[in-house]
Design the sequence.
């Protein structure tokens, strides 16, 4: 089976889809090689295509299949596992020109969207109808729904509402041979055949290219109330997380930052946070009115029982929003201190204190300063190593340390990736968590759907 | 490839697992041939096995693979699509002796269970810890969690909380070759590799046999408030459903019964329902206290705007529970009038009035009395034909009518099965809904995971 030289394919593509934007000059394609994993070395793409319709995607895929040219689907490139980085000799397919909201259906509480729509743009559009799309990755102002679907992204509100996949009712997908299928629709319950929707969600474009999604919405919840709790050390904050849930409270947001991160964020944004604290929790309720007050009261009591050194309620919605933005900026704040390599592990919530202790132990053992923040409410932590840009030994030490951190997460019944995806960054560790038989099943499914391995090769598996 | 005669396999099975209960006498196996689809003619099983551990299931599957003997996994046999009916010459594997609750983990809000546990037994056990497992099929007092997982069952609370699959964090599955995998665990967020959990959920034992499940729980909600609304006709009730959601209310339960069903239920249970009504809605809120009152007030206003003829609030929890039981007994009530063939279609909620009109039109055209009830809140309806036991033409007319009903549901953007599954009953219609390319993908997955077609053959696909 001869591999096409690429030039023939590009020629045929230009002929078949003359109106589609297609970049082939390396100067033009360079910025589409990378995502937010700057430590990964992507390949050089054959070109970068910007299809504008499902028909164009299908035509492109059929042509690529005929020429055996691999394809890399891509959204905004804000991913953190290398799911969208370029593959040598592959055509990168950027979905950002398919960014329409096709429908906001208030009666059925669904939105039908193209993959290129920005998460925040969808949120604003549905808010105008009094509706709410919960999944909100920290990158929500720049990331696309297509990328969220590809990675099954999480965010700050997952602890109460769930992750991206929990809000997907159906997809339109272009398969590896160019056929177009629909996996579901606006029906809330639909059990006809196998659940293909959730199989494509989180598969990082390795099983098909998502060209449309039917998303479940909710009526907009009441405004949030926000509580900050400061602690002398990280274990006390971890203890508080358990006590909050023991009290029967499921907050909409329950975020943790260690002292290192608190100071980095405060340096940047001058929020007046307690810079002497060893850890901070941000706890929010959208239960509304008196119920929200009760939730935050119960959370405050739980924090005090865990030894909180101070508790601060946001004075108003603006202040709360400012604090939330600061949390979302945690990674950026740490980056000001050097190279900040953010990781993404998850454990059952009750194991958070052990996971935090393991991170501290491992970082110390490798002499790597670490900032830890994350979605403590759902056990998803982002240990972030901060190293000097010029340190030639950093990369190797980070790799040893992160391997140890994955082992620790797995030993605690957790995961090597809570919300960033497997991509290129973690495929070597997948079997360690899932086991060889489960990975064999994944490979069998990949082979069944993409026998020639043309869809985003080298990602996930 | 020679097919084993069966006797050799049974001998080897008895030798390998001498302590496992194994029925082979047709008098003993007869009751395990059927589920609740009495109109389907099941095959005669080779035998019926009752493994007591994952190891026994794995040993059994390995042996069956070696002898090319097909297997039919089974729970309580309360299914309504023939997913668990016996297959000629296959070994039926009953999971009811694996019925332990292995763990109720309050801190992580999860339960770890074996597949044979009865849904209601799990509900009661977690309630003792102040917790809540939402999915509640009408058969919840007799159906197993394993069966719920196999069919991705729904129930009365799905409109607010979701279906079985929404509460599954991880599974232990015995694959077709006897290998045992785990697809997830107690982590709320886990995106390592493909989502195998949701692929096995709803696959009716055709891809693997589920031997353990990690289920997500919730803190128990406040007691429910219950409202009944009666209407002159079905379209008015359908209109009310839309108005309730327009008002921003998401009730925990929103059930519909047409007048035919109301009278059948009242005949049986003497509830004092309005027997002159053309339709009834049962609306419940578990929002708690004043919030629940507000939800029901808003729902009551919506019903009045849609022309409700009367509104009744349940006087207390006992009365509400009684009404709920009556709703669950709708199928049984209709059965008292003859053969009651319950179906299960779903449409986007806004299309309910059109679906109800289509059901009425189709039933009239085929001279088939029909009672309609179902989960109006999520668009899932159970049109139930009631025919004379002795009518020799009924079967053919039902088959023509149900085909027309599926066409109508599909034309409205809906599904041939909202919560009962594809099984044997609907496999012929699967492609009509999903399309040939999507079914081709399902077949490819089935072949990848069960190349010899030994797991529940003839079901789903």
Sequence:
């Amino acid at each position: 089976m001869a591999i096409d030289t690429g030039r023939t394919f590009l020629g045929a593509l230009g002929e078949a889809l003359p109106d589609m934007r297609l970049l082939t000059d390396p100067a033009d394609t360079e910025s589409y090689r990378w995502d937010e994993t700057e430590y990964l070395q992507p390949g050089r793409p054959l070109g970068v295509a910007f299809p504008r319709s499902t028909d164009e995607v299908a035509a492109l895929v059929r042509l690529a299949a005929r020429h055996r040219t691999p394809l890399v689907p891509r959204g905004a490139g804000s991913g953190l596992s290398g799911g969208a980085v370029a593959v040598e000799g592959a055509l990168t397919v950027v979905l950002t020109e398919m960014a329409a909201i096709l429908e906001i259906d208030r009666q059925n509480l669904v939105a039908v969207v193209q993959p290129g729509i920005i998460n925040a743009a969808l949120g604003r559009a549905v808010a105008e109808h009094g509706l709410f799309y919960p999944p909100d990755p920290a990158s929500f102002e720049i990331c696309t729904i297509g990328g969220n679907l590809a990675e099954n992204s999480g965010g700050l509100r997952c602890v109460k509402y769930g992750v991206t996949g929990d809000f997907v009712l159906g997809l339109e997908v272009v398969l590896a041979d160019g056929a177009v299928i629909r996996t579901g629709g606006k029906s809330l319950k639909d059990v006809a055949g196998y659940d293909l929707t959730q199989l494509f969600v989180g598969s990082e474009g390795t099983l098909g290219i998502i060209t449309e999604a039917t998303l479940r919405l909710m009526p907009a919840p009441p405004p949030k109330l926000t509580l900050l709790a400061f602690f002398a050390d990280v274990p006390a904050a971890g203890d508080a997380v358990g006590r909050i849930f023991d009290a029967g409270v499921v907050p909409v947001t329950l975020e943790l930052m260690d002292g290192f991160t608190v100071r980095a964020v405060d340096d940047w944004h001058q929020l007046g946070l307690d810079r002497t604290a060893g850890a901070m929790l941000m706890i929010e309720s959208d239960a509304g009115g008196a119920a929200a007050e009760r939730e935050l009261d119960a959370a405050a009591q739980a924090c005090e029982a865990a030894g909180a050194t101070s508790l601060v309620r946001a004075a108003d919605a603006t202040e709360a929003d400012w604090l939330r933005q600061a949390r979302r900026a945690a990674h950026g704040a740490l980056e000001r201190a050097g190279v900040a390599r953010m990781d993404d592990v998850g454990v059952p919530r009750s194991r958070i204190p052990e996971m935090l202790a393991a991170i501290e132990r491992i970082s110390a053992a490798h002499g790597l300063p670490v900032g830890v923040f994350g979605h403590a409410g759902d056990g998803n932590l982002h240990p972030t190593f901060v190293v000097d840009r010029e340190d030639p030994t950093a990369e190797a030490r980070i790799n040893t340390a992160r391997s140890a951190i994955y082992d620790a997460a797995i030993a605690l019944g957790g995961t090597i990736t809570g919300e960033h995806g497997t991509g290129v960054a973690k495929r070597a560790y997948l079997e360690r968590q899932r086991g060889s038989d489960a990975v064999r099943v994944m490979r069998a499914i990949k082979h069944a759907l993409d026998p020639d391995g043309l869809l985003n090769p080298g990602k996930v598996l």
